[in-house]
Amino acid sequence: MSAVPARPHAGPLVAGVTAHRATGAPVMTIWAAWRSLRPREAAVFIVASLMFGAIDLTSLLEYHVGTQLPQVVTRSVLMPLLSGLVLLLCWLPAARSAATGAARMRQLVLATLLGSGLGMVLAQVVTLALPWPSMCDLIRASYGKPPCIPLRPLALMGDTLWVFMPALMIVGLLEIQARRRRQQDAAETLLREHGELRRHALASQLAALQAQVDPPLLFDALVSVEQAYGRRDPSASARLERLIQHLRVALPRLPRHHPTPSGSGGATLASEAELIASYLALLRDLHGQAPAFDGELGAYGAMPLPPMLLLPLVQRALRLGRPGRCWLQARDGCITLGFDHEGLCSDDDDLASLRERLAVLGGRLTCASGAGRTLFTLELHA
Predict the structure, then answer these.
(1) 2 lies in a domain?
(2) Cβ-based burial of 23 (10 A; exposed 0-12, middle 13-18, buried ≥19)
(3) What pLDDT sits at residue 376?
(4) One domain for residues 129 and 223
(5) Does residue 4 belong to any structural domain of this protein?
(6) What values do phi and psi take at 329, rounded to 5?
(7) Which of 6-15, 124-133, 277-286, 317-326 has the lowest mean pLDDT?
């Protein structure tokens, strides 16, 4: 069936319905609209049709039907079901249309009116082929009159209006529910987009933080290397190599990697461990002492990790205490950064900032202190 684009004010008679949505969906044909039928919508039309048939059946109590009862009941149920089916098929393209406002309401009203009229015509045509009496025939027979004349224009108009009014109420209720569902979907989409924007912004911020180098630390390291070369210290070359290594680890990440929705910005657990090791090596060259660092990453070295989560914890630990050893472990998707020093779990702005970053990325940071050590555990969700 070919698809004809629906105009803004076109009714449901057009052969296709344009369903251009914000996501750029293709043209939705009438067949596609019919295939989109939901079980709940079908159930609404079936139940309503059966209720109309039941209203007619109550009139059987006033007339003598005799042996024709099965035929009368079948006809009273079949006609509203056929009408309901046609009404459903006319309503679906209008309901799936992308039209909004007054244009959409006109489409729904016209579709309901068209479905009511076509449904009554189809029901009359089908029942003409079946030798079953109608309620009208029974009523006229009780007064000794001939059977009703089918397909009379005035009678069809009256039956159409009789079906149209309650059908319009049903369509209105369905439209209210659909509008609420669309509003809820739009709100959820906005929330998801807001979350993605926050994650992207946070990823960019974290990558920028990762690319920052402490100017005093860098200046002191350069002066230390210069002084070592001036006094012909044999360790001068090694110090320069460690400074270069730290710059290689810390500086190039922002221009080389783009932040991802997960906030990793191209960083991995192995690269973050390398950053910690090079930072502590610089401190050791400058001050003669720094915590020893061990990393047990195993197969988790390539795990994506938001940048600048681990190094701030190391810097914070050095400000609050004097740990002699620092270690990094990764097991079962959890990352543990430990120090051989107690009392590093006190809440402060730095720890609160790290927890907020992880919360945006769907992770969690916990801290446990005791028995001469402090453990920071990072849980990241895929």
Answers:
(1) no
(2) exposed
(3) 95
(4) no
(5) no
(6) -130, 150
(7) 6-15
**Tens of pLDDT, residues 153-201:** 777 788 788 888 888 898 988 888 888 888 888 888 887 777 676 666 6
Question: CA dist 332 to 13, 15, 241, 266, 297, Å?
Answer: 60, 57, 35, 21, 11
Distance CA 307, CA 310 (A): 8
Phi, psi of 137 (to 5 degrees): -60, -40
Range of the domain at 294: 212-379
Kindly state whether residues 258 and 122 are assigned to the same domain: no
- Cβ atoms within 10 A of the Cβ of 240, count? 18
Same domain, 157 and 219: no
Can you tell me the distance from the alpha carbon of 193 to that of 207, in angstroms, rounded to the nearest whole number? 21
Residue pair 31/4 in contact by the 8 Å Cβ criterion = no
Q: What's the pLDDT at 19?
A: 39
- C-alpha span between 351 and 369 (Å, rounded): 15
Question: What is the per-residue pLDDT for 133?
Answer: 66
Q: Kindly state whether residue 6 falls inside one of the protein's structural domains.
A: no
201, part of any domain? no
CB of 259 closer than 8 Å to CB of 307? no
134-145 per-residue burial string, b: 16 or more CB within 10 A, e: under 16: bbebbeeeeeee
d(CA 281, CA 263): 27
Question: What's the CA gap between 185 and 3, in Å, rounded?
Answer: 27
Residues 40, 95 contacting (CB under 8 angstroms):
no
Domain boundary among 166, 195, 224: 195
Calculated CA dihedral for residues 166, 171, 177, 178, nearest 10 degrees: 180
CATH code, 319? 3.30.565.10
In the chain, which ranges are continuous DSSP H helix? 30-35, 39-57, 69-95, 101-128, 135-142, 153-211, 215-230, 236-250, 253-256, 269-287, 311-320, 349-360
Mean pLDDT of 58-74: 66
Q: What is the mean pLDDT of the chain?
A: 77
DSSP state of 252: T
Answer for the pair 111, 93: CB distance below 8 angstroms, yes or no: yes
| pLDDT at res. 159 | 79
Two tokens at 72? 């009368």
Reported pTM? 0.46
